[in-house]
Amino acid sequence: MKLLKLLVVASVFCGSFAHANEQDSYQTPSKALADLVDAKLAPTTRLSPDNQWMAFLERQRIATLQELAKPELKLAGIKLNPKNFSRARPRSKYLSITFKHLENGQNFTVKGLPEGRILSPSWSPDSQHLAFFIEQAHTAQLYLFNISERRLISVDNAPLNSVITSRPYTWLPNSEGLLINLAANANNQAPSAENASIVPVISQTSGEKAPVRTYQNLLQTPLDKALFSFYGLGQLAKVSLSGNVTKLAKPGIIRSFVPSPNSDYILLGQIEAPFSYLVPYSRFATNWQVIDTKGKPVASVEKQTLAENIPQGFDSVRTDRRSFSWRADKPATLVWAQAQDNGSMKTDVPFHDFVYSWKAPFNSEPKLFAKVERRFAGIEWANDNVAMLSDWRFSDRKIRTQIINPENPNGPRVLFNERSYNDAYNDPGNFVYEQTEFGTRAVKVVGERYMMLTGTGASDKGNIPFLDQFDIKTASSKRVWQSEAPYYERVRAVLDDAGEKLITLRESKTEQPNFYIRNLKQNTLTQFTEFAHPYPDFKNIKKEQISYTRDDGVALSGTLYLPADYKGGKVPVLMWAYPLEYKDKAVASQVRDSPYEFTYIGYWGPMPYLAKGIAVFDDPKMPIVGVDGSEPNDTFRTQLVSSAQAAVDALVEKGVADESRIAIAGHSYGAFMVANLLAHSDLFKTGIARSGAYNRTLTPFGFQGEERDFWQGQAVYSAMSPFFHAEKINEPMLMIHGKDDPNSGTYPMQSERMYNALKGLGKEARLVMLPYEGHGYRARESILHVLWEQEQWLEQHLLSK
């Protein structure tokens, strides 16, 4: 069957695998590995705003190859399903919905759902309904479930369009209905190549600099533009709780529709021509306006122009008004930001952004709300007296949050927190929110003085989650509660004003996560869920967090897992890592996980191979640090090899690793790391590189955290590209890549070209190209085959002596 063919490019040496005659079929790994693919994980949850009901959503973890093989269109950075006007391959999809009451334990499952994937569930602000849509072969339809009546309501004859707005509905804050994006062309014929004009595809520069990252799935022809217009065309409509549909405004390519807190207005963004062959839809021209809930235009907010020439830099932005939102604690006040530096943070100005506000009925001029020294990162609203304004800057990776008085935002500000956004130890956590009188969510303020925060509590002892109380008057925090060993427990909801009644998610090394109700005042802990252990065969593996130091003094750490039957002595080791960039050595040294977390044995990473008697060193830190004015990548290779050497030395010194049998593996930028380590060190016996990029000249306007373009940093680009150093790779390397990888920079040809280089140089390599797969792998057949490929590779190159 043609669909089930797998293009596997053979290794350059004869008899590389015992399965050479099976190269044109999908394979299944050993049972212990295959069982992980079908392991049933705990469901996703949604807590109702009134904290009374928890919805449990059974996850659909994997797809079938037939699902991935369905026709897809790739337009303006989007993969879409032309049959049902939906995004192709949504990540979070569900199979069933069950409810359980927090106090009386009452529970039931929704019955009568049609076949299809459940997507984007959300509670109404009044907690009376759960909305979701179900995607089927030829349509996507909205459903409401009335929790008190236990009644399912279908919104019939209203096909949804989630091509641009991946969630094609939103609740009105007053809970009296919803707004939806209808597929305006659901009953019309799409443009086709047969009736399209054949014309040249012409692009022309304006003479202005227009550095653009390496995007994929862009528009390429006039027909693509016509198809984008056809499938993107939506019709805004209002849906009542009984399922009646009322159309609003004229059809358009709807990018966003957000109701005001008082439910009287809608902020509507519609994409307009001209379209671009150079950038994705998010940078197309967009007309932003306010309409009322009958569809009547009220005010024009901004006509954003096509943004092909945003200045170079990760904190660069378009020069139009941007970042539109409603103020959460007011009936109808719009807020947005606008650059004061021509969009470039490299411009020396006292304020890089101005923030404006505009109050209904929008018949006066917008007001300057606040001046922002760095790049505007958002406002968290609390009330008339308190809001949190954040700004950031890429050059030093700094983010800052200041407490402002919304009545005088440019007056005295209280510094709440300033840190590197990589600095986990000084992360103050996230504010606890509550529902406003309008049905929106705002930061909870108790007694006009106290706010609460929850966080992971990163420390040199690992993550210790916490609940803090912040005193606005004294600008100081008090710890109310924190997790205690040997458990890893974090707050999922605060159920009262005093912060004494909590919903927590609790786990240990051997106990799977479950929800609990914790009463701090009464010192009680009541288990709310009883999820089963998903990997009973892996219960007895051993886990240890180890720390060590590389030769430049940077402290590092990783998590070591030992097979269940480990009796001591040296064993083969599989290391799985991913480099990260920093501007501070102390921050780079931070521990970012907990020794008490439950041990997940997912099919995605290295953990399955514990079943083969291989020790796993997971996430050994590979920090790339730029200090004293240098950029991190100036010494990428040196730091990468140094980190790997320190990890190997630590494992050998511990008496666990057989230093002659250590493998290195990684995905995406981790694959890039693998190829570099094989080229520039002799630490590893073999490598596994998945969905990687190996030639940085193919990403000439930056990659990962590198802002310099190729012409500004040719030496850096060439030094970092393992393709340029393929002749130095003298260990066997397995490469795997999805043939439809849409990720920026990791074109499938990156792996194909790297393989061709290794083959031409007489190196030992194997390339597996997975049909229909993207940057991550979705189909059951593909996942099983990847596990098999990696298992066979490790058996031959790591376990074999």
* Alpha-beta classification: mainly beta
* Share in β-strands: 25-35%
Ends apart, CA distance between termini? 38 Å
Number of helices: 9
Mean pLDDT: 93
- CATH topology name of the domain at 2-35 and 539-799, in short, is Rossmann fold
Strand order of the largest sheet: 1-49-48-47-46-42-44-41-40
How would you sum up the major sheet? 9 strands, mixed
Give the % helix: 10-25%
Which overall shape is indicated by the principal axes computed on the Cα atoms?
Answer: globular
CATH superfamily caption of the domain at 2-35 and 539-799: Alpha/Beta hydrolase fold, catalytic domain
The CATH architecture category of the domain at 2-35 and 539-799 equals: 3-Layer(aba) Sandwich
Low-confidence stretches: 1-21
Whole-angstrom Rg: 27 Å
Please report the first level of CATH classification, the CATH class of the domain at 2-35 and 539-799.
Alpha Beta
Number of strands: 49
Keywords:
801 residues, mainly beta, Rossmann fold, Neuraminidase, nine-stranded mixed β-sheet, 9 helices, 49 strands, disordered N terminus, Peptidase_S9_cat
Give the arrangement of secondary structure elements.
Elements: E1 7-9, H1 31-37, E2 44-47, E3 53-59, H2 65-68, E4 73-75, E5 78-81, E6 86-87, E7 94-101, E8 107-109, E9 117-123, E10 129-135, E11 140-146, E12 151-154, E13 169-171, E14 177-183, H3 222-232, E15 233-240, E16 245-247, E17 252-259, E18 265-271, E19 286-292, E20 297-304, E21 322-326, E22 333-339, E23 353-359, E24 367-372, E25 375-381, E26 387-393, E27 398-404, E28 414-420, E29 430-431, E30 433-435, E31 441-443, E32 445-446, E33 450-455, E34 466-471, E35 476-482, E36 488-494, E37 501-507, E38 514-519, E39 524-527, E40 542-549, E41 555-562, E42 571-576, E43 579-582, H4 585-588, E44 615-618, E45 622-625, H5 636-653, E46 657-667, H6 669-680, E47 686-690, H7 714-720, E48 733-738, H8 748-760, E49 765-770, H9 780-799
Helix pairs in contact: 5-6
